[in-house]
Amino acid sequence: VNPVIEVILDPGAAKQELDKLKKLGFKAYTEKVGDKVRVRVGPYAEREKAEKISQQLEKRGLNPVVMSVR
Fold first, then answer.
1. Could you say which of 12, 21, 59, 64 would form a disulfide bridge with 28 (CB–CB 3.0 to 4.6 Å)?
2. Can you say how many angstroms the Cα of residue 43 is from the centroid of all Cα atoms in its chain?
3. What residues form DSSP beta bridges with 65?
4. What 3-state class would DSSP assign to 56?
5. pLDDT tens digit at each of 70 positions of the chain
6. How far, CA to CA in Å, does 13 sit from each of 1, 2, 7, 27, 57?
7. Residue among 63, 41, 61 nearest 50 (CA)
8. CA-CA distance, 33 to 14, in Å (whole number)?
9. What span, in angstroms and rounded, lies between the C-alpha atoms of 2 and 15?
């Protein structure tokens, strides 16, 4: 189980944010959920690292959630 950071956005905003995150060097990807899109960053080996990255994303105006996925 590895922590990832998730932000849920509308499809247009998700594509833009995904492109920005990748340009900044983040390992980011998307998953469609109904009419929204999850933008996920990670996974990270340690939750502490994910929390630090989450704080960076908050400074970008996002509302990230750190969660564990399998």
1. 21
2. 9
3. 6
4. helix
5. 588 999 999 999 999 999 999 999 999 999 999 999 999 999 999 999 999 999 999 998 888 999 998 7
6. 28, 26, 11, 18, 15
7. 41
8. 12
9. 24
How far is it, in rounded angstroms, from Cα 9 to Cα 24?
19
Q: Rounded to two decimals, what is the model's pTM?
A: 0.85
Q: How far apart are CA 16 and CA 10, in angstroms?
A: 10
**What is the pLDDT, as a whole number, of residue 25?**
92
User: What confidence score (pLDDT) does residue 1 get?
Assistant: 59
Would you give the distance in Å from CA 18 to the centre of its chain? 8
Structure token digits, residue 9: 């956005």
Q: Is 52 helix (H, G, I), strand (E, B) or coil?
A: helix
Residues 11, 37: Cα–Cα separation, whole Å: 6
DSSP H helices in the chain: 11-23, 47-59
